Amino acid sequence: MDREVRVRFAPSPTGALHIGGVRTALYNYLFAKKHNGKMLLRIEDTDQTRFVSSAEDYIKEALEWAGIKLDESPWDGGDCAPYRQSERKPMYMQYAMKLVEEGNAYYAFDTPEELDAMRKRLEAAKVVSPAYNSITRNSMKNSLTLPESEVKDLLAAGVSYVIRLKVPRKEEIRLNDMIRGWVMVHSSAIDDKVLMKSDGMPTYHLANVVDDHLMKITHVIRGEEWLPSAPLHILLYKFLGWESTMPAFAHLPLILNPDGEGKLSKRKAAQYGFPVVPLKWMEEKDGQVTEVASFKEEGYLPDAMVNFLAFLGWNPGTDQEIYSMEELIKVFDIERIGKSGTKFDIAKAKWYNQQYVRKKTDEELAFFLKAEMKNQGIEVSDELAPKICGLMKERVTFPKDFGNEAIYFFKRPTQYDDQVISSKWTQETASLIQEFAQLLKAQTNVTADEAKHLLHNMLDAKGVKIGKVMQSLRVALTGQPAGPDLMQIIEILGANETSNRLSLAVNALKGKEIVA
Ligand code: GLU
Question: Which of 17, 251, 311, 398 has the CB geometry, 3.0–4.6 Å to 227, for a possible disulfide?
Answer without folding.
Answer: 251
